Amino acid sequence: MNGFERIIVAVDLTEESGQVARKARALATPASRLSLLHVTEPINSAYFDGSPYVSVAVNVGAFDEEIMRHKEEIMASLGDELDIDTADRHVLRGKPAYEIKEFAKQAQADLIVIGTHGQKGLGLILGSTASSVLHGAPCDVLAVRIE
Ligand code: AMP
């Protein structure tokens, strides 16, 4: 085997995603298949308190759909920028670290590429997505230091 063949790039769809995905692109060989993966945590309940006296319940279903639509749009432009096949752009629902590992397992990935902020203090204690993915990852993990 020369290099990694099946690469999963975990993206949070912030402006940092380009940095992480470009690193993965640079590692890929012409034989590599690269997939972008974003995981959205479902909104179980949303309740907006406008004042101590007035509360406004929002339509959670519509809000959730709007978020998913927006994320699909960001994923589309990131995928276009990096020339990733449309079939290899995934927006899933669930717990990010868990879904990233499950997806990598199903795809028989040999590398997960993920960003890291090099957490310190409380962030280190609470853990980051990168450290959660590292624990129990089914394959190699590259943590890309976000500048
Ligand atoms: P953080 O846990 O916020 O420090 O995120 C670090 C990295 O974890 C990001 O750069 C992404 O590579 C990955 N990540 C965070 N949240 C998600 C998500 N919801 N879906 C996919 N990857 C994510």
What is the CATH homologous superfamily assignment? HUPs
In spatial order, strands of the major sheet run 5-2-1-6-7
Which CATH-level-2 architecture? 3-Layer(aba) Sandwich
Which cofactor or ligand species appear?
adenosine monophosphate
The string of secondary-structure elements, in order, is EHEEEHEHEHHE
Helix share bin: 25-40%
CATH-assigned fold name = Rossmann fold
| Averaged pLDDT | 87
Instruction: Give the structural class.
Output: alpha/beta
Shape: globular
**How much of the residues is beta strand, in percent?**
15-25%
**How many strand elements?**
7
Can you identify the CATH class? Alpha Beta
Ends distance:
31 Å
Q: Number of folding domains?
A: 1
List the helices and strands and how they pair.
Layout: E1 6-10, H1 17-27, E2 33-40, E3 47-49, E4 55-57, H2 60-81, E5 89-93, H3 96-106, E6 111-116, H4 121-126, H5 129-134, E7 140-145
The structure holds adenosine monophosphate (AMP).
Adenosine monophosphate binds next to strand 2, strand 6 and helix 5.
